[in-house]
């Protein structure tokens, strides 16, 4: 070092400056080349660390996936309980798709160490089917017989062939028989395990906090070390609960939560926040006006029904009621949906003129959800503009609406949203056998050819044949005009830009946003490849 110092001092000042500059350039070039090499031959990978706070409107009531349709319960249950296909090794169907044999992985356990076996699977189905349980999953399991073959094997025998049963199995949450097996089915709701659950999912409950008035403010989840799947990266997952959407969005703005979802986009469009990302996740759901021809003689006239559909400006509804977050629909089959023809009230007036009805007055039933009530008002204005009047709008709170209006078919026109558990299975919504509750044929539609095609569609596993059947089904239903198809809406999920790992091409329910929760991550390190 001394020798280099003496050499520099032996140089003239200009030579010394040039030498120092050249050395600095050489060193900087080396640093740059090293940095480039690291960047080229390395990658950021997620690591097990960090926390995440999910904001939810509402309250958990029963963290039991076969009991509750409450969104807060479903969100938590998605992380705490596994679905059947999370721990199966094989699923085999017989040639007629009538009996399915499922084999479980070995050495499965619940988070408390108790073994998870085929007994738990059969018990879960039995509880779902028990009328005293009132499970929201009961319709999907009607007539299915689940039988234990061995500790690791269970069979499902269907009342008739059903080619979509693989999807039904994939959505079956399994609950522990050693926890709930001694409780009378009617008393399942009373179990303390509905707030302190024992599951087999990627997370388990570490604790929860509530105010003195009973309002639960937070659930804290940590990784379940006995979960069969890949361990989640996020080490502390919190659910924080709020009384309404405004309080939740204020908390996000103040960085007290890291993510939240919106089932219905607001009329102002997706809210914007600093350093955040908005995911628009497709859902197989559509909003429709169902026409009950048995409740109003004028609705028996096909041209009148056509006029009701043709006179609706769907683009304006999506713009004014949902902030341009939606897609107009013209078909019951969303995968084959084509954009409706451009809005033209003259076409509706022609259909109305061809209708042989004297009484053009109608009553439209809609749940008390602000966005849907606004939709109803816009539709009323469209109908009035072409001469369909008077139009009365009746509303009820969502829970009362489902029980008193929908189940009893107590409406002339019904504005309602349907979600297709299997997007290619239209049977529950359009087969004549589903006209009465608990069926979902809300137009009380009857067409023998459509019934035949719907039945064929459930019996074939051939994707090409199924698509052709669906095209014919959709064309016939659209030709009959039993309903006015309006729009489909995405699910909006807003989160901090530090979150990565979401892979959500489509979800059936809002809770499905957590279906790849193990891949969510908020901490990453760079490693050489």
UniProtKB/TrEMBL annotation:
Residues 92-431 form the Solute-binding protein family domain. One of its GO terms (molecular function) is peptide transmembrane transporter activity. InterPro entries: Peptide/Ni-bd, SBP_5, SBP_5_dom. SUPFAM superfamilies: Periplasmic binding protein-like II (SSF53850). This is Solute-binding protein family 5 domain-containing protein. It comes from the Bacteria. It holds the Pfam family SBP_bac_5. The keyword Oxidoreductase does not apply. One of its GO terms (biological process) is peptide transport. Keywords: Signal, Transport. Belongs to the bacterial solute-binding protein 5 family. One of its GO terms (cellular component) is periplasmic space.
